[in-house]
């Protein structure tokens, strides 16, 4: 019984410590700050697993249909190109200061605009 009480007390102290750190703002989460390694791991792992879980039921569209590719390119032009850039258009100057930084591999894939079947790229390069 003493062990259970000790574990409950330890858990309560841990929860109170985490709540206190969050409440007083000890961790700088500003977009201009770099996260410490463990926090970065936590945020990245949470983001990746969250996306994977919610993307399980999403069916990749048939990218051989020109109308679908044109609709996607139009949506990218309207909603994404301003910040991320496009062929012949540099990314928004503030994009270099964003945290997390945009991924260079995506920028490299964006330059060619090749279809996945033409270049061996995965469909994630387009979505």
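Q: What amino acid sequence fits the structure above?
A:
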């Amino acid at each position: 019984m003493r062990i259970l009480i000790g574990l409950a007390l330890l858990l309560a102290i841990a929860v109170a410590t985490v709540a206190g750190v969050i409440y007083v703002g000890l961790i700088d989460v500003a977009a201009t700050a770099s996260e410490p390694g463990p926090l970065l791991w936590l945020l990245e792992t949470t983001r990746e697993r969250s996306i994977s879980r919610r993307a399980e039921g999403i069916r990749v569209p048939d990218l051989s249909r020109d109308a679908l590719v044109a609709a996607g390119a139009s949506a990218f032009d309207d909603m994404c190109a301003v910040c991320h850039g496009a062929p012949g258009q540099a990314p928004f100057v503030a994009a270099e200061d964003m945290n997390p930084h945009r991924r260079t591999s995506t920028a490299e894939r964006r330059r060619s605009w090749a279809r996945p079947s033409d270049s061996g790229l995965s469909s994630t390069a387009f979505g």
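Q: And what stands out in the fold?
A: The mean pLDDT is 77.
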